[in-house]
Design goal:
This protein is of the alpha/beta class. 33% of the residues lie in helices and 15% in strands. The strands form 4 sheets. It has a 7-stranded mixed sheet, sandwiched between helices. The longest helix has 32 residues. Bound molecules: pyridoxal-5'-phosphate (PLP). The site of pyridoxal-5'-phosphate has 14 residues, from helix 3 and helix 4.
Length: 417
């Protein structure tokens, strides 16, 4: 019996795996054009041609089927801009899923509002509509619905709760570019959608983000919020003079994307639609092969989530079948077999060290957790994640992932917990 790679045995498959991020044929020419243009920033001078930022925003909005897209420098800034656009601030509460990236809560704290942490659904790992309904108070000013890892939150049930209470939904689609719910793309269902284009995301410029909305008034606010009260001037443009005009109705920040990042995003959009489908196909194949291994349970998306966008492929394991090993141990054992990063889910936010009161200004608001985050902790303790580039590997390499699980399971008694 061959021993585990973690203990010095031969691995199941030592790689290579598909690389991420990747650049297509348009990236270099577009970057060269920016270098030579004299216009590196939105806040730079009018050079007689529209910005690449404007071109990307149009392309992304058309892809999503929404009226407005305003780019920002990070996904975290997208959340910040969305909260500010909705006038959320001190004394307000925003409902945030208990299992998500820490920036979802820190964005709320950044506007001096209180993140109210609620539990997630065991099927999707996304925020549970019942938990949201139970957490609403007269102070609730928004619901942050996050599409996590590879599944969409139940937007119909969440919209029903939100509409009943007249609360807007901010849809965090940082992990869901291209996903579809009942014929609509992720990010276009809530009042405002927020995207991240950070390095690991399926559309990336290294750093970057966007907010999208169908609401003309919110779009105008968002445009000013991301550029210190400035908006693209529609007329009176003069060569060498600023393309942005100081409108000055909303106090914001400089959260603007550079033209270099816009160039890379335009190149990325050439591949996003086809890659979304290829990743979904790879994920279906992987699910089929993992079904041959005892004790593994895939995420169960809602039927309305007709196209899944995979940021991470998440799979749950039955601890007794794997010798009661911890998520961390299983990740290390699989990593050794596959030469591939295998990671644990986020730390549920009620246990997150960065949100501990001791780390924060005692005068600032804290997170509130009206009920225990039972499923957030249970699922985080039995789930492992594969980053999306693996889903673009050939089927033979996806089979290797199933073989690695099987091998680790066979040798589970050799693992320390
Ligand atoms: C990545 C991410 C963010 C933050 O995006 P940044 O670009 O890293 O600031 C917010 N929410 C979710 C769900 C994310 O995955």
């Amino acid at each position: 019996m061959t021993s585990l790679a973690l203990l010095g045995g031969p691995p199941v498959y030592p790689g290579p795996w598909p690389a991420w991020p990747t650049a297509g044929s348009r990236a270099r020419p577009l970057l060269d054009a920016v270098l030579a243009s004299g216009r590196w920033a939105l806040s730079g001078p009018w050079t007689g041609t529209p910005t690449l930022e404007g071109e990307f925003s149009r392309t992304f909005a058309d892809f999503l089927g929404i009226r407005h897209c305003l780019t920002v420098d990070h996904g975290s800034s997208a959340l910040l801009a969305a909260l500010l656009a909705l006038d959320i601030g001190a004394g307000d509460e925003v409902i945030v899923p208990g299992l998500t990236w820490v920036a979802c809560a820190s964005a709320v704290l950044r506007v001096n509002a209180t993140p109210v942490l609620v539990d997630v659904s065991a099927d999707t790992l996304c925020v549970a509509p019942e938990a949201v309904a139970a957490a609403i108070t007269p102070r609730t000013k928004a619901l942050l619905a996050v599409h996590l890892y590879s599944a969409m939150a139940d937007m119909d049930a969440l919209a029903a709760v939100a509409n009943r209470h007249g609360i807007p939904i901010i849809e965090d689609a940082a992990q869901a570019h291209g996903a579809v719910w009942a014929g609509k793309r992720a990010g276009t269902i809530g009042r405002i959608g927020a995207f991240s284009m950070q390095q690991g995301k399926v559309l990336t410029a290294g750093e970057g983000g966007a907010v999208v909305t169908d609401d003309d008034k919110l779009a105008a606010r968002l445009e000013q919020l991301r550029a210190d009260g400035r908006q693209y001037a529609a007329d009176g443009l003069r060569l060498g003079h600023p393309h942005l005009r100081e409108v000055g109705h909303v106090l914001g920040f400089n959260l603007a994307l550079s033209e270099f990042q816009a160039a890379i995003l335009i190149d990325g959009m050439d591949r996003l639609p086809a890659e979304t489908i290829a990743r979904a196909r790879g994920a279906d194949l992987l699910t089929r092969h993992l079904a041959q291994v005892a004790g593994l349970e895939p995420i169960r998306p809602h039927p309305a989530n007709s196209l899944r966008a995979y940021y991470h492929y998440a799979v749950r394991y039955d601890a007794p079948t794997f010798g009661h090993c911890s998520v961390g141990t299983l990740c290390r054992a699989l990593e050794a077999e596959l030469s591939l990063p295998v990671t644990a889910p986020y730390v549920p936010l009620d246990s997150h060290p960065l949100l501990a009161p001791s780390l924060r200004d005692p005068r600032a608001p804290r997170t509130r957790r009206p009920a225990p985050l039972v499923e957030a902790h249970r699922q985080a303790g039995r789930t492992v994640l594969f980053h999306h580039p693996v889903l673009l590997a050939s089927e033979e390499h996806l089979v290797a992932i199933a073989l690695a699980f099987e091998k680790v399971q066979r040798h589970a008694r050799l693992l320390s917990p």
